[in-house]
Amino acid sequence: MIVCFLGIGSNLGDRRKTIKDAIKKINSLKDTHVLKLSKVITSNPVGGPRHQPQFLNAVLKIETGLSPFILLSKIKNIEKSLGREKTVRNGPRAIDLDILFYGDEVIDTAVLKIPHPRILERDFVIKPLLEVI
Question: What is the reported pTM?
C-alpha cells in the first residue's frame, strides 16, 4: 500500500455534497482507504473564465494498492459520475480530483505529473495538505 495525497475541489451545484460523495467513492475503490481529510476551505478560482463561483477545497490522505495510472483512471471516472464535464481550462466544475503525491514517486508524462506541478502556486492546496501530512 502506498500513501497518496489527493486534492479535491468543487464550485458548481451542492459543493459539500459532491465532495462528500467523491470521498465515499474514493474510499470504496479496490485496495484504497481514506486515512485523513483536511478541513474544507473556500477559495477563489485561479485562472479560467471570470465570474466563477468560489470553490470548496480539501486534501485527502489515502493509502492505495492501485498504481498511479489506475488511480488516475478511477478518479477521472468518479469525476464523470459526479457530473464533471470538460469545458474550458480551469472553468467551473462540479468536482475536481487531482493526485498531488503518490508515495515518493516522480512521474512526468503527458497524462500524469506527480508531484502535481502547481502545488506551490496554490494556497488552497498547501494549507489543507499541511493539515493531513
Answer: 0.93
